[in-house]
Amino acid sequence: MSATQLATLARTPEPHTMLRRFLAFDAAGTGANGIAYLVASGPMGRLLGIDSGLLLTLGVLLTAYAAGVGLLATRPQPPALPVRAVIELNLAWTALSFIALAVWLSPTTTGAVYIPAQALVVAGFAGLQYGALRAAGSS
User: Fold this and answer.
1) Where are its TM segments located (predicted)?
2) What ranges in the chain are assigned the alpha helix state H?
3) Among 28, 81, 97, 134, which residue has the fewest nearby CB atoms (within 10 Å)?
4) Which residue ranges make up each domain of the chain?
């Protein structure tokens, strides 16, 4: 997604709407990833060079997390504390992705590109959500 497309998504006179949009976008992306890990952990594991059992476990966790973030996105004014938790969990995921890449995982070339790329996308979600939360006056 380009910066122009993100700016279009964020353009609203209502800051809570912007926050809800970024939460929903996070939920959709995370949910798609989780479902992919659930239904294709074997092929994805071979492609990325990551144990399929780990991907299956991550699929369960990501799908449940996405459902929670999606539920939060349905609130007319998402409460600040749960939104902060989402932001912090996204930042933790980002950090753990880089740590796992450096310390635990031995991915394929595709995995070595995919892992930091998805981590940076998740960090982007956190940044957008933080900015929207501040704009809503709930930081």
Assistant:
1) 21-40, 52-73, 85-105, 111-133
2) 3-10, 15-39, 41-48, 52-73, 80-103, 109-135
3) 81
4) 15-135
